[in-house]
Design brief:
Length: 154
């Protein structure tokens, strides 16, 4: 899978706190429909970041969206360690090593799969049941994508 985008537009704040003995600085940004807070440290000079929250001058040790649905926090730091990747993930990455898929295509396929599952669930409800549909990605990491804002071309 391939998803190209620039570094996020982070606003570095003055707030500080300590995580795993590292002094961290608060930064905020907005990405794909969510507002994020991240605590990063300048003390670890590495290009490591969780998920797609990139572009800060250090390593993010904790992050959270404004609703508290999407969040993570480092529980341990391994420096110069040799960690084994679970077989399931290693096989997945090996199978995609020589080809790439447009990220938009992957998301559209996921949306189609989700719609099929929803249709199956709705078919199992008692006759006459009314369902209010919402945004299927409301509790996903990314609530919206750049191409959804593009105007449709004839």
């Amino acid at each position: 899978m391939k998803d190209k985008f620039e570094d996020l537009n982070w606003i570095i704040q003055k707030e500080k706190k300590t995580l795993l003995t590292y002094e961290c600085t608060l930064a905020t940004t907005e990405f794909r429909g969510r507002k994020y807070k991240a605590w990063f440290t300048y003390d670890l000079k590495n290009n490591a970041f969780p998920w797609k929250l990139k572009g800060l001058p250090g390593v993010i040790l904790a992050f959270e969206d404004e609703s508290g649905i999407i969040k993570g926090e480092a529980s341990k730091i391994y420096i110069n360690s040799d960690l084994n990747m679970p077989t399931k993930f290693a096989e997945f990455f090996d199978s995609h090593r020589t080809n790439s898929i447009q990220f938009k295509k992957v998301i559209l396929e996921i949306n189609k799969y989700s719609a099929d599952l929803e249709s199956q669930d709705l078919a199992n409800l008692p006759l006459g049941t009314k369902v209010k549909k919402g945004n299927p990605r409301e509790f996903s990491v990314e609530k919206s994508f750049e191409w959804e804002k593009e105007s449709s071309k004839p």
